[in-house]
Structures are given as structure tokens and as C-alpha cells.
Design goal:
This protein has 419 residues and is mainly beta. The chain contains six helices and 28 strands.
Length: 419
């Protein structure tokens, strides 16, 4: 009773079955997890993890690139990132390191599984025992899920296969199916009788985990499937896709009970149910997490779209808004963004904005930002121009577009007194 009273006292503004948002990240929300005490953890493209008590966040910074997923292993919060690492919070200790992006996590008490684009699955004990690396996928691994008894692990990858592993030994037991397109998400039934998966080509299917036989197919004309979540009682399965829809399935009758557009624009990256199953939490391009009462999804407010250039914007501003604004501000401070502010950019030495934590590669690059160096950055691509940078790979190959962007940045990043 005391614990329940404490949780309610800490949760005054986010009552169950009420709509609410958690705002504070500086980029898309890419992962959501709910703790046993109902606190919510969020992962973001802004490289941070938020741990929310009510609507009050505690920020965990330490990853050097976008955070892709978060899980609670018992009472331990674990995050994964594009920087190849898994970290334990609140300390930020590195639990493990892959040779590529860590795309997803799964957990049971005392053990965390990771899916990595280095083509392996990791098993990371929390008690200090040696980890295991599981080899078998022929390309990057996108998703992992433990069986209800914790003895088996399922993984899905870019190679289109869904595989089963023995947790105790790390041995691959079998390839359950070969889908042909990358498998992005796996969710098992609470009793292990079925396994749902979502794929790059938009397929949403439910199979028998023992035989791989198809039980149900809910494929719609949307792609890719990016998120899945099962309600705590196992009776509702939510599916989010790249076109911003959330479909909710009744797992007893296997009928679609909800299907609604959750975003004004863009994908649904992450889904999770509240502990009581009355709310569905979601993350997308917006920098806030949205939570809707599951019984009122049809009337739910939509996740907003990030800022768009005005109708009168020139080409340079449109390029900035479309390619740069999700990571960078034009204000004197960086905020909670994945990149530093661009205020006062020209003439500044790379790696010197005080409120931003740079990669070693940028901090030691010696680059001074000029029209020539900014052009070279986008002509060659960040990964080639500054090897080791955590800046997302992108290029602007058209010289006229680069020139337009630079002209806009010249105006927009100049100190106020120089405009």
C-alpha cells in the first residue's frame, strides 16, 4: 500500500487513461520502456535517455550517437545506441560493445540481449559473468525477443530470417523462417503460443513459433513495420509503421480493433503500453512522447510534425529545415539536440561549442568552419570528411544546393549584431 501511494503521489499529472505528453528531448523519440514502478524511460535521436517521474525528466547523457532503444532488466535501466554500445544507468557504465549500431534490446531479470548491425546478437549478464556473442545471421540484426520462460531467444535480421537461440549455451537452434525482406520487430505471446513479426515490406504476421506455420496475416498497404508492443495482459498487440499508423489487434479474436493515423507526418518509431494497459505510449519524429488512452485512440490528438519551411522560404532555408534542423538549433544554446548550435558558425573552430559534447574525431579535427569547409563536409559526406564523427551520414551532391544552404547559414547563424 505504501508503494502504491508513493507512485500515485509522484504521478499527479499523468493519471492512467488520460492523454499526456512527455516533452524535453531535442530529437525524435526512438525507444520507450516502462519500469515496474510505472516510470517511463525514453531514448532519443538527441543522444540522451530520459527517465520520467510524472512529467519530470532525469537526463542521462553519455552515448556519443543516437540512442536507439531502452529496456528495464528488472530494476536496471539499459540503453543501446548507434555508437555501438550498451550502457547501464544512472552511472552510464558501458555494459557491452558491438562492432556496429545496436538496433534493439530485450531483457529478462539479470540478462540483456542486443541486436546489432554487425550481424551478431549479444547476451549480456548483469552479474559480471562473461557475455556471449551469437553468430548466424548473414546481415545486420534488427530485433530480439526472449521467450516467456527465458530459455529461448528469437532474433530477426536484415537477411529476412527469424532465428531461435538457446539462451543457456548461445547455440542457434534453428532458422524458423526465411521471409525474404528484413524483419524489424518480433513480439512473442505471454504464454509462448504465437510469435508476431513485422517486416520492411509491411508484412505483419503471426506464426507458430515451433513450426513457423502462418496463423494470421494482418498485412496492410503500409511499410515498413517499425514498432510493436504487447499489452501487459497479452490481449492487445499494437503495431506502428513508417506511414504513421498504429494498428491494434485483439489477440483472442485476432481482429483489428483500432487502426488510426497517429502522426500528422512521418513514422511511428516506438511503442509501449503502460503497466495497467490503459495507455499506449508512442514516439515518432516529434521530440515528445505521446500517450493515449487505448479506448479513445480514434479521437486522439496526432503527433505533430517537426517545423517546416515557410511557403516563402528560399531553397537554402528549405534544405536547412529538411536536413539540418532536427539536429541543430540557430539559437545561442544547443538545447537537447543531437548536434551543436550553428549560431556563430562561420569562423568557429570545430568542436568548441561549450554546451555540447563532441566526438573525439571532431574535437581533434582542427577544422575551422568556412564556406569551403562546410561545402566539403556535405560534398564528401561527414563520415569521409571527418572519419569517426557521430554526425549522420548525408551528402548534398548538387553544388547549387550546397551554395544555397551556405548562403542561408551565412544569414541565419550570424550573431544578432552582425545581421
Amino acid at each position: 500500500m505504501r508503494l502504491a501511494a508513493l507512485i500515485l503521489a509522484l504521478w499527479p499529472s499523468l493519471a492512467a487513461a488520460d492523454f499526456f505528453t512527455l516533452k524535453g528531448h531535442g530529437g525524435p523519440v526512438t525507444g520507450i520502456a516502462v519500469a515496474p514502478d510505472e516510470r517511463i524511460a525514453t531514448a532519443s535521436f538527441d543522444t540522451s535517455v530520459g527517465l520520467w517521474t510524472g512529467d519530470d525528466p532525469r537526463w542521462f547523457d553519455g552515448h556519443e550517437a543516437a540512442v536507439t532503444d531502452v529496456v528495464f532488466a528488472g530494476g536496471t535501466l539499459v540503453s543501446a545506441s548507434d555508437d555501438f554500445t550498451l550502457r547501464l544507468w544512472p552511472e552510464g557504465t558501458v555494459l557491452g560493445r558491438h562492432g556496429g549500431k545496436v538496433a534493439a534490446l530485450a531483457a529478462i531479470p539479470g540478462l540483456v540481449a542486443s541486436a546489432s548491425w554487425d550481424g551478431t546478437v549479444g547476451l549480456w549478464p548483469l552479474d559480471g559473468r562473461a557475455p556471449k556473442r551469437l553468430h548466424g545471421h548473414e546481415d545486420g540484426v534488427n530485433t530480439v525477443a526472449f521467450s516467456p520462460d527465458g530459455r529461448r531467444l528469437w532474433s530477426g535480421g536484415k537477411d529476412g530470417t527469424l532465428r531461435e537461440w538457446d539462451v543457456a549455451t548461445g547455440a542457434q537452434r534453428r532458422v524458423i523462417l526465411r521471409h525474404g525482406f528484413g524483419i524489424n520487430r518480433i513480439v512473442p505471446a505471454r504464454d509462448g503460443r504465437w510469435l508476431a513479426y513485422g517486416a520492411v515490406d509491411g508484412v505483419t504476421r503471426v506464426i507458430d513459433p515451433e513450426t513457423g506455420a502462418l496463423l494470421h496475416d494482418f498485412t496492410l498497404d503500409r511499410r515498413p513495420i517499425l514498432a510493436m508492443a504487447l499489452a501487459p495482459d497479452g490481449r492487445r498487440l499494437a503495431v506502428g509503421d513508417g506511414q504513421g499508423y498504429i494498428m491494434v489487434l485483439d489477440t483472442e479474436t485476432w481482429r483489428i480493433v483500432r487502426d488510426f493515423r497517429a502522426t500528422l507526418k512521418g513514422p511511428v518509431w516506438a511503442l509501449a503500453y503502460s503497466r495497467d494497459g490503459r495507455n499506449l505510449h508512442a514516439g515518432g519524429l516529434d521530440s515528445a512522447m505521446y500517450s493515449w488512452p487505448v479506448d479513445e485512440l480514434a479521437e486522439a490528438p496526432k503527433m505533430v510534425t517537426p517545423a517546416r519551411a515557410s511557403a516563402t522560404a528560399d531553397n537554402g532555408e528549405r534544405i536547412f529545415v529538411g536536413r539540418c534542423s532536427i539536429c541543430h538549433t540557430l539559437t545561442p544554446d544547443s538545447g537537447r539536440r543531437a548536434g551543436p548550435t550553428l549560431h556563430g558558425l562561420f569562423g568557429r573552430r570545430a568542436g568548441t561549442v561549450a554546451d555540447y559534447r563532441y566526438s573525439v574525431a571532431v574535437a581533434r579535427s582542427g577544422i575551422v568552419w568556412t564556406e569551403e569547409s562546410v561545402s566539403a563536409l556535405f560534398d564528401e559526406g561527414p563520415d569521409s570528411y571527418i572519419p569517426g564523427t557521430k554526425m549522420p551520414t548525408q551528402r548534398i551532391t548538387n553544388p547549387a544546393d550546397r551554395a544555397d544552404l551556405i548562403a542561408y547559414l551565412r544569414r541565419a547563424t550570424a550573431p544578432t549584431e552582425d545581421r
